[in-house]
């Protein structure tokens, strides 16, 4: 297509690719087995319940996110039904791939077996990658696409073969269909091109072909956004204002040292960043980190938003660290290696105990639930649905004949829609995110079981409200439902006509 395309060059890395690959697969497999053995300890997370609900209403877009994750969830449901372990298997596979690709990047950047193992373990034992294997989240796949884009850029810069832009474009396009934060990484790529001699690729037809591939993949969601008035932008603005107001964006820099990467991997990613900056051939990758970093700092993003950029830095740092170790005497080399892997493992074990649901009872369970708010949000959904069904059964026949379940958040909505059919409950009526677009039943119900809304709100908006029950869970765990939405009411219809009530019921959550 143009003169920029050249044959892929042969790797100059140490000839340990096959042995290193075996280690990468073993590390990834070990983490995958750990997740598969523990991912069924509790129930679905509230976010997973929203994905499950949206998976039953597939579209080219959703208020809170693009369509890729609900599509994968739909496939998961078709294969595994409502099995937490089965539904999370795709997340486990995605994180296993992240570990392997990180090790491959270390090899492509000149590292041998030690560098590959060091990089793979650093990512495998970091908090956010560990978490991504425990739940089905759009961030799980977002990390994979970021890492793949970085890997393809490494191959591009190493070989000079501009055809790699097609792979970069495909990964970026799928990334945009997964989570809109991919736009920040794309901005980093463009910024890096402008700030380095790699701007020569702007003259390449392969670059523009890759951009076309990304746009073509993303186009259905872009059209959906246009048709819906860019509703996701309103959602993201609302969520950002909420996060900043509640202090969720505080501690951004601390999160880079503690959440995004294992603390013992910090020297690796710092070294990797410095190496990228010092090597003109790979300087583009430094800007792929620094540009999103600057944007998140200026825009007050949350600490974990940049986590997907660290594997590429760790890979380069591991390769550089291995070369540095070769200059040391054997005793010093063994000492440094021992300190690194011991510290990495010690921190990793702590993170595993906090993040992974290792036990369903006893001290390990109590420790995890005390320190992991996401695990607490996996508890109590079956009890919620059962309580709603019991309240329904206590009502007189004339009220049961025209009954709806009105909920205040997407966790409750997903729980009633996904778990409620086992109790014969109707689909929940919700004004949150994409559920609001689906409206309310016709004819609308005249009696409502209301949960997730305060008594003051219910009495102001609805008629004839009375307290009908309380939510609880078998572990006595304090989470959003048990602490803030424990009261359940039975009410009549809204005080305003349903169409007017519905316009005011929309909520981003």
Give an overview in words.
With 509 residues, the chain is mainly alpha-helical. Helices cover 63% and strands 4% of the residues. It is built from 26 helices and five strands. It has helices at residues 17-38, 46-55, 68-80, 84-87, 89-108, 113-124, 127-132, 138-159, 164-176, 182-195, 205-227, 231-245, 252-258, 266-278, 283-299, 310-326, 330-355, 362-371, 373-376, 381-394, 397-400, 410-419, 434-437, 455-461, 480-484, 498-505, and strands at 403-407, 429-430, 447-451, 466-470, 487-491. The radius of gyration is 25 Å and the shape is globular. The two termini are 47 Å apart. The model is unreliable at 1-16 (pLDDT under 50).
Q: What is the strand arrangement across the widest sheet?
A: 2-1-3-5-4
Low-pLDDT runs of 5+ residues are 1-16
Q: Estimate the helix proportion, in percent.
A: 55-70%
Q: What is the number of helices?
A: 26
**Percentage beta strand:** under 5%
What overall form do the CA principal axes indicate?
globular
Major beta-sheet overview: 5 strands, mixed
Instruction: Write down the overall mean pLDDT.
Output: 94
Overall SS class: mainly alpha
């Amino acid at each position: 297509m143009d003169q920029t395309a050249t044959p892929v060059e042969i790797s100059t890395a140490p000839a340990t690719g096959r042995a290193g690959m075996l280690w990468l697969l073993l590390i990834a497999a070990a983490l995958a087995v750990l997740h598969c053995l523990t991912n069924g300890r509790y129930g679905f997370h509230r976010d997973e319940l929203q994905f499950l609900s949206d998976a039953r209403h597939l579209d080219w877009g959703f208020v809170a996110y693009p369509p890729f994750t609900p599509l994968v969830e739909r496939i998961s449901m078709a294969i595994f039904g409502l099995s937490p372990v089965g539904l999370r298997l795709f997340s486990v596979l995605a994180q296993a791939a992240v570990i392997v690709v990180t090790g491959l990047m270390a090899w492509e950047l000149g590292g041998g077996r030690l560098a590959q193992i060091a990089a793979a373990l650093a990512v495998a034992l970091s908090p956010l990658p560990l978490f991504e294997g425990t739940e089905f989240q759009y961030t799980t796949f977002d990390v994979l696409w970021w890492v793949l884009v970085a890997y393809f850029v490494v191959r591009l810069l190493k070989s000079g073969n501009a055809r790699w832009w097609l792979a970069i474009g495909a990964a970026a396009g799928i990334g945009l269909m997964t989570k809109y934060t991919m736009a920040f990484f794309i901005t980093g790529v463009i910024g890096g091109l402008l700030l380095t001699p790699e701007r020569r690729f702007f003259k390449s037809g392969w670059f523009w072909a890759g951009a076309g591939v990304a746009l073509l993949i993303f186009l259905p969601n872009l059209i959906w956004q246009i048709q819906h008035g860019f509703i996701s932008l309103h959602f993201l603005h609302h969520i950002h204002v909420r996060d900043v107001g509640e202090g969720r964006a505080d501690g951004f820099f601390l999160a880079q040292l503690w959440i995004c990467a294992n603390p013992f991997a910090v020297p690796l990613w710092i070294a990797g960043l410095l190496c990228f900056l010092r090597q003109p051939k790979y300087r583009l990758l430094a800007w792929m980190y620094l540009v999103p970093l600057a944007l998140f700092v200026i825009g007050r993003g949350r600490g974990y938003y940049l986590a997907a950029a660290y594997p590429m830095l760790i890979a380069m740092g591991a390769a550089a660290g291995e070369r540095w170790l070769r200059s040391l005497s054997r005793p010093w080399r063994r000492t440094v290696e021992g300190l690194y892997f011991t510290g990495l493992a010690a921190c990793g074990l702590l993170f595993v105990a906090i993040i992974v649901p290792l036990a369903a009872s006893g001290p390990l369970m109590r420790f995890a639930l005390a320190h992991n708010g996401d695990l607490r949000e996996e508890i109590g959904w079956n009890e919620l649905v059962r309580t709603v069904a019991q309240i329904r059964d206590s009502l007189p026949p004339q009220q049961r004949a025209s009954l709806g379940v009105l909920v205040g958040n997407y966790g409750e909505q997903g729980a009633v829609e996904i778990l409620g059919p086992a109790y014969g409950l109707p689909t929940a009526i919700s004004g949150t995110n994409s559920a609001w677009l689906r409206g309310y039943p016709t004819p609308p119900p005249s009696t409502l079981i209301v949960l997730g809304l305060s008594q003051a709100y219910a009495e102001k908006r609805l008629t004839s409200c009375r307290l009908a029950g309380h939510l609880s869970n078998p572990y006595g765990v304090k989470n959003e439902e048990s602490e803030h939405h424990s009261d359940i009411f039975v009410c009549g219809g809204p005080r305003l006509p349903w169409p007017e009530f519905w316009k005011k019921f929309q909520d981003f959550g």
